[in-house]
Structure formats: C-alpha cells, structure tokens
Amino acid sequence: VTTSHERSTPEPIDPDEIEVDVNYEPDPTDLVLSSVPGGELFDPRKHKFSEEELKPQPMIKKAKKVFVPEAQKHPGTLSNPFSPIPYFQDDKYWQRRNKNNMAAKRSRDARRLKENQITVRAAFLERENTALRLEVAELRKECGRYKNVVGHYKAKYGQM
User: Fold this and answer.
1) How far apart are CA 72 and CA 85, in angstroms?
2) How far apart are CA 116 and CA 59, in angstroms?
3) Is the four-CA dihedral 103, 108, 111, 114 of positive or negative sign?
4) How far apart are CA 155 and CA 56, in angstroms?
5) Are 68 and 88 in contact, with CB atoms under 8 Å apart?
6) Cα-atom radius of gyration of the chain, to the nearest Å?
7) What is the largest CA-CA distance in the chain?
8) For 82-111, how does the pLDDT look when each residue is reduced to its tens digit (9 = 90+)?
9) Secondary-structure percent of the chain, ordered helix, strand, coil, rounded to 5
10) Which parts of the sequence are annotated with region: Disordered (predicted)?
11) Least crowded by CB within 10 Å, which of 38, 99, 128, 150?
C-alpha cells in the first residue's frame, strides 16, 4: 500500500497532442482539389477551421442577366454615334469588365477551395469520431472490469 504523498499524478495531457489511429486515406484528387496551387497538400488531420470560416453563408439571389447584343459590345459597330449604347465602346468599361471577371473567378475558386477543404476535413472527422467512440467503449468496458475488481476487493477486505 502506498501513501498519498508517495503517489505521483501524471502530467496533464494537451488534447491537441493526442494522435488517434484513424484508418483514413483521402483520395489524392480530393487533396489536390483542397490545396492551394503551388502550396503544400491540405492535411485534414491538422487543419482547424475557425468558427467564422464554418458559419453558413447567406444565399444571395442573382439579378437577372441582361444580355447585350454582340453588335453593341465591339467598338466601331454602331451606326448611330449619339445612341446611349456607346458606353460599351469605352475602353474603361472593358477594363472594368475584365477586372471584375477576374475577381469573380478568384472568388469562386477560393470558395470552391474552402468547400473542398471542409468536405475532406469533415470526412476525416467522421472517421476519427467513429474511432474515438470505439476507444471510449473499450475504455468503459475496461473501467467496468476494474470497478468490479475493486468491488470484490472491498467486499473481501473492507474499505481502503
């Protein structure tokens, strides 16, 4: 029998340092689609999203598209120089359109990348959750056996 001053309690464990054995190998294509081009591959085991990143985004209704006839888009094709359409012949207009198109493409690509990362991370977390539940079940069973042993010990020898 040891006395309380001879016992040593284990050091606290940082939950982020615990590695759970998870049988999960993501599809390489999914990893590539979840990684920033030119950067290192996305690791669903280590990446953590902030609360803000995981908030649902509101659905924004798009305005109806107003199609502009091709003849009005290209310089020099209008017969009436005083028409309200010459705005489309303006070089500034096309510079802004091209800049906006590139920004929209970057925004869509960034959103798609984030969605792919969240999907791959969620798949990993589902597997990890299953593994942890199995481990908890085994530990509870083991703890039950120890409680049973202690119960028999107390019944035979009395309180400690």
Assistant:
1) 7
2) 18
3) negative
4) 57
5) yes
6) 31
7) 109
8) 555 555 567 888 888 899 999 999 999 999
9) 60, 0, 40
10) 1-20, 34-55
11) 38
